[in-house]
Amino acid sequence: MKKHIFITGRVQGVGFRHFTRKNAEALGVTGWVKNLSDGRVEAVFQGDEEQIEELVERCKKGPVASYVQSIEVSKESDDEDFEDFSVEL
């Protein structure tokens, strides 16, 4: 299963991408995360549904200095498999 995520709030400059990667790796989720020019964070999570749901829940809290206003989650096509979880620039 694969989900496309957009996170809005104070999510840049607070270690959000590295927080997401650390939690994804701990849960066995693959994919990527990156900052967007509009201030949001975008990510694609691939794994078991329960693992993805747990990662989304962790992202709702975020790292200590963050403030998550909202998270949009949509289903992504499974046309590409990821080997690991990366932080994109």
From TrEMBL:
Keywords of the record: Hydrolase
The record's similarity note reads: Belongs to the acylphosphatase family.
Q: Which organism is it from?
A: Gracilimonas halophila
Where do the catalytic residues lie?
A: 17, 35
What name appears for this protein in its UniProt entry? Answer: Acylphosphatase
Q: Known EC number(s)?
A: 3.6.1.7
Query: What InterPro entries does this protein map onto?
Result: Acylphosphatase (IPR020456), Acylphosphatase-like_dom (IPR001792), Acylphosphatase-like_dom_sf (IPR036046), Acylphosphatase_CS (IPR017968)
Q: Which PROSITE patterns match?
A: ACYLPHOSPHATASE_1, ACYLPHOSPHATASE_2, ACYLPHOSPHATASE_3
Q: Which reaction does it catalyse?
A: an acyl phosphate + H2O = a carboxylate + phosphate + H(+)
Domain (Acylphosphatase-like) spans: 2-89
